[in-house]
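ok trying this again, last paste got cut off
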Amino acid sequence: MENTLNYEFRDKLLLEQALRHSSAKSDNAGSNERLEFLGDSLLGMVISEMLYRQFPEMQEGDLSLIKSEVVSRLVLAQEAKKIELHQWIQVGKGFKEKANVPDSILANVLEALFGAIYLDGGLEPLKIIIIRLFSDKIAEIVAREHEVNYKAALQHYTQKELGLMPVYQVVKETGPRHEPVFTVTVRIEDKEYGPGKGKTKKEAEQSAALIALQEFGKTN
């Protein structure tokens, strides 16, 4: 666990407690719930600072939306799986296999781990670990939010200037079932724009919307 995090605990008992789910606690050993409480707050603070510093042009509402997704149970569980946290979690006998530990528990244990690192080594090593774990996810979310704006921007323009809604159509789907490529056009009045391509229909629609915006001269 310490090698994966690139952090060595001075107090090994803190690490053990962070990895101990409430289902595995005993009279002699408490669970990680208090550390989870602390880690949740610390994660929110570090992510907030990351977003504040990285995106000075963003308004509070956009920052809040990104933060809420980054610190969600789903994303925490994904990051916990990347570092194979389930291998070290202490759970009760009700769990037959550690590999099947629910995402909610993985997320909670990761937060408890953050709390333990803070108590053991302070804020700076914790920030380094959180930045390493979540930087790619933040970049992915921000990129997706910018893509969403292409459709929103096109709709805003066509409604305001033309009194029309863009109409998207999937014209082709290629590739294997597990890795399809969608081709989409967008029709505005009697003109078709695109095509846009993507791994999902939504991604292809964003691409088509961007092409239309470029033809209207509404992008930089």
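PB: full thing came through this time. The beta strands are 167-174, 181-188, 191-198.
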